[in-house]
């Protein structure tokens, strides 16, 4: 295959930053070695690699679940074989910005549940906090080990038409997708074993080791080998593959609520040899299902009494309950002010401009310009409950407006950001598709560590800006060059 034949269908949309081509349609230096390599491959060779990737995903059970009309449909996670490449300098900028952001967010959550200085000083409105469904009053004045509330974060980044990185969302509760980042790299090693070392791609495989180290360090008992478990909602959860993968890679037990019991404010795991005390719980169960004595009384996913054990300091829970107060999309717009307030620094990473629908002036502006807006529910994820004005009918827009007016606090709006594009192998050619990036940050007593890479999600449908797997998106391996 001649190199030029790759680009026969490659047409970058106007006002879009392309990761591979610059404004003069020259290949960016970081992509040159990859393109040179691919140009020596035939279409049949690349198609065989694509088929091999699908077989590997299938054989290893790398799936996710889409919930539609109340039914769970398990699907193979779509994977594009062409990597997304980030330069060393770009990564340094991203890494520094995420670390700054997480420092401020941890300080904010601690403040909200203790002294509330940021509220008293008028930086964040009190009603914004108390109306947040993830603000948990039971966490008031609770001591959290090392004052770390966010141990694991998946910060969603997008790139605008001028190449500027923006933070789209802070995923602080139970961020998912890291297993796909790890598996994407393993698949890429099989497909392009020579290319990764030639390009000096940094490794992401340290993630389980760093996470396990941080979890072990949170134990309150002075024992050599604390008992750490991963608490999963079970096999019907959309991210169950990830739960099993992480538990296996860290060498810890994968448990469900029925496997644990609380006795005298201490959590125990049921084993064939009797009860074993649990020191640290990496939970993938949402707050409202964590303890039926405190939250949802009908929950069978959590453990009765676990919050009392947590408040006593007898068990550590990762991420800390109640940290979703900083994950609310309406609170998101105050993060730059949090950075200035707590750190006395200017934000490194920008927020996407955000409008609150409970502000009459901002709501009017959004309604007047709704075809240029993306409107989201403040506590939904996975691309659900979202209106993309430019792609919606007048009827859909009018119905959505009615929903907004029922409870304006639960909606925010943002201008449509074009998202950068990256090359994907489709129909024997390279074609641009829109992407975002979710790097994973791990916060421990020794500081914040971010593995060099992340999950690049791809809007596989031509012209689409929706990258969520539940909405038809896929992913690709993310290379950070040394």
Automatic annotation (TrEMBL):
Gene3D superfamilies: 3.30.1490.270, 3.40.50.11290
All copies of domain Circularly permuted ATP-grasp type, residue ranges: 83-459
PANTHER family: BLR5612 PROTEIN, SLL1039 PROTEIN
InterPro entries from the UniProt entry: ATP-dep_Glu-Cys_Ligase-2, CP_ATPgrasp_2, UCP005522
Pfam families: CP_ATPgrasp_2
UniProt cross-references to SUPFAM superfamilies, sorted A to Z: Glutathione synthetase ATP-binding domain-like
This protein's name: Circularly permuted type 2 ATP-grasp protein
Signal peptide limits: none
Coiled-coil regions, chain positions: none
């Amino acid at each position: 295959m001649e190199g030029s034949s790759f680009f026969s269908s490659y047409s970058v949309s106007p006002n879009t930053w392309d990761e591979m081509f610059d404004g003069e349609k020259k290949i960016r230096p970081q992509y040159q070695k990859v393109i040179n390599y691919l140009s020596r491959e035939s279409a049949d060779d690349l198609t065989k690699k694509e088929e091999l990737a699908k077989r590997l995903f299938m054989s290893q059970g790398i799936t996710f679940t889409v919930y539609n009309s109340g039914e769970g449909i398990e699907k193979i996670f779509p994977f594009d074989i062409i990597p997304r490449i980030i330069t060393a300098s770009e990564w340094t900028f991203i890494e520094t910005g995420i670390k700054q952001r997480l420092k401020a967010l941890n300080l904010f959550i601690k403040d909200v549940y203790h002294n509330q200085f940021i509220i008293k000083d008028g930086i964040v409105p009190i009603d914004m906090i108390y109306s947040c469904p993830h603000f948990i009053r039971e966490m008031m004045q609770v001591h959290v080990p090392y004052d770390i509330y966010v141990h694991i974060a998946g910060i969603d980044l997008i790139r605008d038409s001028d190449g500027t990185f923006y933070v789209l969302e802070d995923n602080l509760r139970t961020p998912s997708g890291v297993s796909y980042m790890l598996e994407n790299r393993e698949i890429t090693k099989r497909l392009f074993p020579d290319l990764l070392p030639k390009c000096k791609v940094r490794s992401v495989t340290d993630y389980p080791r760093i996470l396990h180290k941080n979890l072990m360090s949170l134990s309150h008992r002075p024992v050599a080998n604390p008992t750490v478990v991963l608490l999963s909602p079970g096999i019907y959860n959309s991210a169950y593959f990830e739960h099993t993968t992480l538990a296996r890679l860290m060498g810890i037990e994968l448990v469900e609520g029925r496997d644990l019991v609380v006795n005298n404010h201490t959590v125990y795991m049921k084993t064939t040899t009797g009860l074993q005390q649990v020191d640290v719980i990496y939970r993938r169960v949402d707050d409202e299902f964590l303890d039926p004595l405190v939250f949802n009384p009908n929950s069978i996913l959590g453990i009765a009494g676990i919050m009392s054990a947590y408040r006593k300091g007898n068990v550590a829970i990762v991420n800390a309950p109640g940290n979703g107060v900083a994950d609310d999309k309406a609170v998101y717009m105050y993060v730059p002010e949090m950075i200035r307030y707590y750190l006395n620094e200017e934000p490194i990473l920008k927020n996407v401009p955000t409008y609150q629908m409970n502000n009459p002036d901002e709501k009017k502006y959004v309604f007047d310009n709704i075809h240029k807006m993306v409107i989201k529910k403040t506590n939904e994820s996975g691309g659900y409950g979202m209106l993309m004005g430019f792609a919606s009918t007048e009827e859909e827009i009018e119905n959505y407006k009615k929903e907004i007016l029922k409870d304006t606090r639960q909606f925010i709006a943002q201008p449509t950001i074009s998202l950068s594009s990256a090359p994907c192998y489709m129909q024997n050619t390279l074609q641009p598709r829109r992407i975002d990036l979710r790097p994973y940050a791990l916060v421990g007593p020794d500081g914040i560590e971010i593995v060099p890479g992340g999950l690049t999600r791809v809007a596989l449908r031509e012209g689409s800006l929706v990258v969520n797997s539940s909405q038809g998106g896929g992913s690709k391996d993310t290379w950070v060059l040394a």
